[in-house]
Amino acid sequence: MGSDINLIFKIAGVGILVAAAHWILKSAGKEDYAFITTVGGVAVVLAWVIYQLGSLFEQVKSVFKLF
Amino acid sequence: MQVVGLGLVAAVLAVVIRHNKPEMALFLSIAVGIIIFMALLAKVGSVLDVLKELSSRANLSMVYLGTILKIVGIAYIADFGAQICRDAGEGAVASKIEFAAKILVLVLAVPIVVAVLNSLIRIVP
């Protein structure tokens, strides 16, 4: 639980950071860089969440003896 | 207690993020769901161990208990996925997931239904 809450803060931090970067790049007139930043942030967070989701499914499988 | 605190923190963070990046708020809610689920899964496992021990003491066939556990597991996973989809505003995908889970549960329950019908036929000639 203690290390898991770090993931929440990491995701929130990446979200705020990406939002700030998006806003700055947009106001600087670099629309495509802003889009790339957003996609990169989403990809990074998606990788973390997918990893966690995989371990959750493995645990459910082992607890309930699915398959 | 920990779960409630985690949920509150995550809700505040999600509200902060949702203004600018709704997709990050979705990831946040998925992560919270996973963490709470994993924290509770260990306790569910110990309860299931007790249940298995009781069933072996009562000479119940492990086939039936295993089927029931599989059904419960499918229901948990499907409910998790469906709720996330509904959170993301995809109600149609969520109901498809629930439909698939219902079909899988039905498939798993067929052997038990057949066993019940067999014993019924044996009793009533």
Describe this structure in words.
The complex is a heterodimer of chains A (67) and B (125). Chain A has 67 residues and is mostly helical. Chain A has helices at 4-27, 31-64. Chain A has one domain. In chain A, helix 1 (4-27) packs antiparallel against helix 2. Chain A is elongated, with a radius of gyration of 17 Å. The relative contact order of chain A is 0.11. The model of chain A has no long low-confidence stretch (mean pLDDT 84). Chain B is 90% helix and 0% strand. Chain B has 4 helices and no strands. Chain A binds chain B through residues 1, 4-5, 7-9, 11-12, 14-16, 18-19, 22-23, 38, 41-42, 45-46, 48-49, 52-53, 55-57, 59-61, 63-66, and chain B through 2, 6, 9-10, 13-14, 16-17, 20-21, 23-25, 27-28, 30-32, 34-35, 37-39, 41, 44-45, 48, 66, 69-70, 72-74, 76-77.
Could you give the distance between the termini of chain A? 28 Å
The largest sheet of chain B, given as strand count, sense and whether it forms a barrel, is:
none
Sheet with the most strands, sense and barrel status of chain A: none
Counting DSSP E segments of at least 2 residues, the number of strands of chain B comes to 0
- One letter per element, helices H and strands E, the order of chain B comes to HHHH
Backbone CA Rg of chain A: 17 Å
Count of discrete domains of chain A? 1
Order of helices and strands of chain A: HH
Low-pLDDT regions of chain A: none
Structural class computed from helices and strand pairing of chain B: mainly alpha
Largest two-chain interface? A-B, 34 and 35 residues
Distinct helical segment count of chain A: 2
Mean pLDDT of chain A, nearest integer? 84
Mean pLDDT of chain B: 86
Distance between the termini of chain B: 57 Å
How much β-strand is present in the residues of chain B?
A: under 5%
* Overall 3D shape of chain A: elongated
Can you tell me the overall shape of chain B? Answer: elongated
